[in-house]
Amino acid sequence: MNPSFRMRLFKWFVIVSVIPSILLGGFSYLLINQEIAKNTENMINNTNDGIYNMIDTQQRVLDQWLPSAAEAFVSQLNALGESRFDYNEMVKVGDYVIPTWYIGDQKITHDYTLVDELIEKEKLPATIFMLEDNKFLRVSTNVRQEDGSRIIDTDISSGPIYDKIINGQVYLGRASVEGIMHATIYMPIFDSDRKLIGAFVLGRRESEYEIINAIKRITIANNGYVMIMDSDANIIIHPERTGENVMGYEWIQSILKQQNGSIRYSFDGTEKIAYFRYYEPWDWYIVSIGILDDIQSAPRTMLKLLLTTFIISILISLLIAYFISKEFFKPINKLVNSLKLMKNGDLSVRFTSYKDEEFKFLSNTFNALSYTFSILMGRLISSSNKLKESSKRVLLDLDRSMATLSNLEKDIEDLMTYPIKLSSESNLIYLNVDYSNDMIESLELLRQKLPKYINASNEEVMEIITLIDDLKKQIDVKNEATVNHGDDMEINNRFNAIYIEIQKLKLLIDNIVNSSSSLDEIATEVDKQVNIFKTENDPYIE
């Protein structure tokens, strides 16, 4: 069964409203998904660049702050007075026995007054070295080990730092203090004769940088993080693996080799993407790591939201389509109901809808058609009734005419058998025939009715009427006619001719009866057709 026009309209409305939404939503999802992935990767890269800039800024601050602090400490040392060595007070430092070092009245060797003031006031780790046998011996420090004890009695005898300060130069940069990385400045100390007698170092533990805590707090998407490692693959910052060496991983080796770039890799079954940069002053590899599942979580969330929105939009579209189709088909349903009433015979039904111009035209057209149809049906019913009545009257009159004609035929047959008597007087012939008055009346009735039911221009009919008139003239009221003796044969011939014409008239009336029967059948069929509202087995009615 074909769907109704209303259902097709409903489907088309849904298709027109839903399919563009699907296409637009899918296309938008693809674009947004790509854009989100791109923006997320850009965010990871920007995070990496931001950390790099933060570290570089920290280094710039240190590059200005440490020299300034070192100059202040030099001024403080100079304010104490001249350096001197008391050989009467020898002390053991490492493998050496050396004299006690004083600057003014301030004892330096194994005294921590100056360095502790720095750690308290400036939060600066500080160490003072004394030059002995071309080695810098650590004689005073506020740098402590993990157990809280001071790091003393060690020396600097080689390396880039040693090369700098042994030549009276300043070293500014990273340095390991007993395995603890610091940002440092090493300043040589001279006596009044500009002889190199020692050095001091001011520094800042890298683990105490504010930036370290800031980096640890950085998250990328939901589970991404930042990892810092050095060129030996020792992890400096990591949410879980700080202090480990990860040189054994292939992706770590790629990072160390490339120094700058990005890489996708799988770790513990998790797909990840990493952007990395190398900060040479600190020997740091800044690695910003994003979890691909996190990166795709936003598109998935958006897809769920899009699907939810799509389902809601479909439901809304269905409701809108339903109400629109319902509203649209209100006048159509009303028209259908009016047509059903008309089909059932109610021609007085009218269809009224003036909300829309189109339905207003349809309403006026339907009403005009209904009005015209009711008039035509009324006329057809009236004509049908008249035709039926006329058909009945014609058949009745023809039946009567046939009866009359049969009587006439019988009378003439009887007349033709009567003998003719001749009289000797005046040579006249007397017909001793006893005609009945019924025959004369029948002739007159036949004469009157023939022109009503037979075309008056029919010559045979006119001839029969003339013969009937002649026959009446020849029959007098005394039932006795007089004819010339010499015309007896002519009278017989006339009777014969009338008889023949009556036979013709019978045939003609038979034909008229047959035609009238057909006319009656037509009238009956018209009557059936007039009652079209009462037909059964209508193929157009479900």
TrEMBL record:
UniProt-listed Pfam families: Cache_3-Cache_2
Kinase recorded as keyword: yes
Keyword Transmembrane helix among record annotations: yes
CDD domains linked to this entry: HAMP, PDC2_MCP_like
InterPro entries per record: Cache_3-Cache_2 (IPR033462), HAMP_dom (IPR003660), HssS/ArlS-like (IPR050398), Sensor-like_sf (IPR029151)
Topological type in the membrane: Multi-pass membrane protein
SUPFAM superfamilies: Sensory domain-like (SSF103190)
Catalyzed chemical reaction(s): ATP + protein L-histidine = ADP + protein N-phospho-L-histidine
Residue spans crossing the bilayer: 12-32, 305-324
Record-annotated HAMP domain positions: 326-378
EC number(s) on file: 2.7.13.3
Top EC class, one word: transferase
Cellular location(s): Membrane
Keywords noted in UniProt: Kinase, Membrane, Phosphoprotein, Transferase, Transmembrane, Transmembrane helix
Name recorded for this polypeptide: histidine kinase
Organism of provenance: Fusibacter ferrireducens
